Amino acid sequence: MITVQGVVDRVGPTLLRIIADHTEHPQVTDVIIAEGGKRTPVATGDLVLGIAVTGATDAVELVRHCGAQGAAAVLLKPPHATRNAVKTAGQRSDIAIIEVHTGAAWAQLVWLLRSVLDAAADESDSSRAEGPFGDLFRLADAAAAVIDAPVTIEDANSRVLAYSARQDRTDPARVSTIMGRRVPDDVLARFRSRGVFRELSRGRTTIFVPAQRDGTLPRLIVPIRMGGELLGSMWAVVPGPVPDDRAAAFADTAPVVALHLLRRRAREDSERRRSAELVRSVLEGTGSARLVAAELDLAAGEHRVVAVDVQAQDALGGEGVRLTLVQRLTEGIGRRPAVTDMHGVLYAVVPVDGGWEQVRSTLATGGALVAAGSPVELADLARSRAEADEALSLLRAGLVEGPVARYEDVWAVLVLHRAAVAAAGVTAIGPLVALRALDEDSDGWYADTLYEWLRHPGDPRSAAAALNIHPNTLRYRMSRVTNAIDADLTEPDVRLALLTQLVALRWQ
């Protein structure tokens, strides 16, 4: 971990200057960009870059919002950082205000700040090995020295794991990649159309991609493999074709990077298993919520348990699809994802403030069924998990429209479903027995007609629409139903009893 002062010291006074530091816990965890006109999701310890701030009012609002979310600092360019209203807002919100040199490019600053944070994280990681297989950023710098060009190291999903210095000598596509920590979709599409990823999968030693018409500079790409498995790739932004000896030297660095990636993956797998066990224990009601909060750095306040049905996803794409779901489910939520897998359901603990809305927007179009329990304190996560399971069961049965359901939004269906379960056996008494017998000897419309008529009292048009028939057809069928059963449908208790039986019949 590193403090706000530590970040400013490492970047240097030429670019950054602390105007005011009121934070009681000035530990920095990440760098995010405040988007104009939106409530930017902010987590504890974030450095927030006020790129879209255009006036004092915007600056004050951003400072207040970030302070309320526990951010470490807001970075602003002159003259906003030194305005009295902004400094007062920072003091009241317990957040640091940092002034960015007016000539500094935001893209370069993002790269510098993330380099500082990544280096600090590596320094504090006691499990990091020293020697020739040191941290990835040093390896990226070493590879860049070999090829004499700026380099990124990416995993098999085009996420940026590390990058070398001198990224200012690149193009907009590389800047967007560094800022977003992954290759943008449009850039991926361009390289995919040129067959780059097909060549990577075929095991080529090096791949050269010429300059493109949109201004994207040439790339020399080296796959990172171990035991036949593609672990990732290294991308160098080069001025043009590279001599064979230099390209071969660049490719020779790949095995060293591969060993580091394997060790890194083993460590992450171990941490992920431990995290999953902790989350599983608290969702089952046997673990300590306080321990989970401390281990996974969960923020104080209410959280929801989100349940994702991964059984259908596994059938479509197997483990790869499941891993993608985990990534999408937890991206941008906390420092370490609170995720576990039980009985074909993927569970995640997400903060109510921003976390659930992010999950909803991320997974709503992904095809998976997603259900959320109600907001609870961390000690009640087992209850929220049970509620998420119940809401997910309604989605699976098609009793509510999917693919996303929130527990408190489907309460009416939950009441009917619970009543149906509790009413098991009641369908074998009363006039419904005769009606079901008629259904067996006819086209089967008697019970359905009565059900919709009871659900839409005094509204034959809506009842007919639910059955996809004309209102006159509904009236004719109801006359047949009335003649077939020995019951007074004008009695409220009779109607309620019959509706209860029909609900139980449908939902048991």
Short description:
The chain has 21 helices and 17 strands. It is of the alpha+beta class and 508 residues long. The two termini are 54 Å apart.
Describe the structure.
This protein is of the alpha+beta class and 508 residues long. The strands form four sheets. The chain has a five-stranded mixed β-sheet with strand order 2-7-6-5-4, sandwiched between helices. A five-stranded antiparallel β-sheet has the order 9-8-12-11-10, with helices on both faces. The chain has a five-stranded mixed β-sheet with strand order 14-15-13-16-17, with helices on both faces. It is elongated, with a radius of gyration of 30 Å. The chain has helices at 4-11, 56-68, 84-93, 106-124, 136-147, 172-180, 185-193, 196-201, 244-252, 254-283, 289-296, 311-317, 319-330, 355-363, 381-397, 411-422, 432-440, 446-455, 460-467, 471-484, 492-507; strands at residues 2-3, 16-20, 27-28, 30-33, 46-49, 73-76, 96-100, 151-155, 160-163, 207-209, 219-226, 229-237, 303-309, 339-342, 345-351, 369-372, 404-406. The model is unreliable at 126-134 and 314-320 (pLDDT under 50). The protein folds into four domains: 2-112, HprK N-terminal domain-like (Udp-n-acetylmuramoylalanyl-d-glutamate--2,6- Diaminopimelate Ligase, Chain: A, domain 1), CATH 3.40.1390; 126-263, Beta-Lactamase (2-Layer Sandwich), CATH 3.30.450; 296-412, Reverse transcriptase/Diguanylate cyclase domain (Alpha-Beta Plaits, 2-Layer Sandwich); 423-507, PucR C-terminal helix-turn-helix domain (Arc Repressor Mutant, subunit A, Orthogonal Bundle). The protein is 49% helix and 16% strand. The chain is built from 21 helices and 17 strands.
